[in-house]
Amino acid sequence: MSKKKITLTEEELVAALQNREKIAVEALYDMYSASLFGVISRIVIDEATAEDLLQETFVKIWHSFSSYSADKGRLFTWMVNIARNLSIDKLRSKDFKNNSKNQELENNVTFIDEQRNTVYKPELMGIKELVQKLKPEQKSILDLVYFKGYTHVEAADELGIPLGTIKTRLRMAIIQLRKNFN
């Protein structure tokens, strides 16, 4: 027999969370886990990491609920911001970056395909060859920003060139790639 999902109004849920009632945790999970997992998994592609972050999100909601104010916005918006911020923090963490950097560029395409369960799509073939035709300075920036998840500032630091140069070269690379699709 399946367990019935608990649904409360936002006011009832807020009151239950303020009173630290057990039903609040159950209702919170039943009502919002799917939505929050969706937010997290759009930011963090790895499913296991996203599941861990969902759990962290609920723990943080429980422990920091005293900072929630209905005057400042809806409960769901506050929870989405917590999930989003934890996910972004995870992406920016040294451990996560080091694990990501250790994968070769060649393996990134395979890794992403496996994580997203993508299938062979002939219309996408040839992208690698198009990127190879770019200038070396454009390829290195594309590699860092799009394949390794660096921010523009981090890419500038890594390559030892000004932020403006990174942005200009990245824009020029994208314009060059777009010419192939018009």
UniProtKB/TrEMBL annotation:
Alphabetical UniProt keywords: DNA-binding, Sigma factor, Transcription, Transcription regulation
Domain RNA polymerase sigma-70 region: 28-95, 132-179
Pfam family, any one: Sigma70_r2
InterPro entries per record: RNA_pol_sigma-70-like, RNA_pol_sigma-70_dom, RNA_pol_sigma70_r2, RNA_pol_sigma70_r4, RNA_pol_sigma_r2, RNA_pol_sigma_r3/r4-like, WH-like_DNA-bd_sf
Family statement drawn from the similarity comment of this UniProt entry: Belongs to the sigma-70 factor family. ECF subfamily.
Cited NCBIfam families: sigma70-ECF
Name of the molecule in the record: RNA polymerase sigma factor
Taxonomic source organism: Mucilaginibacter antarcticus
Lineage: Bacteria, Pseudomonadati, Bacteroidota, Sphingobacteriia, Sphingobacteriales
